[in-house]
Specification:
This protein is an alpha+beta fold. It has three helices and five strands.
Length: 113
Amino acid sequence: MTRWFRTYWAEEDVWFYVEADADGWVTRQVELRGPLEKPIAAASLAEWEAAQQAGSLTDYEATFGATAEVPVHEWDAHEPQDLTAEQFEIVWLTARATCRVLSRTEISKISLN
């Protein structure tokens, strides 16, 4: 059964929004940093694996980041707050759009130099 939750990592001031499968593996993950909750990642495990196979992993991670590499039950000292699928989806779609725009902005800055 798919599970959606969020958890806060105070050391980095980051909220993690997570979609995990029945075995606890993260299938989609959003990271929001700071008081303005700026999206810094919005990664999909399936997309990450496809990018790895296609040889475009560096580009994918530069735009969307990566998902956690261990199942959620192995995470240290996190206190998950359950979310509905709809709550997660709103955060996911917003973060994905922001990551795409930020990626294009960085490319434009490099091109202008």
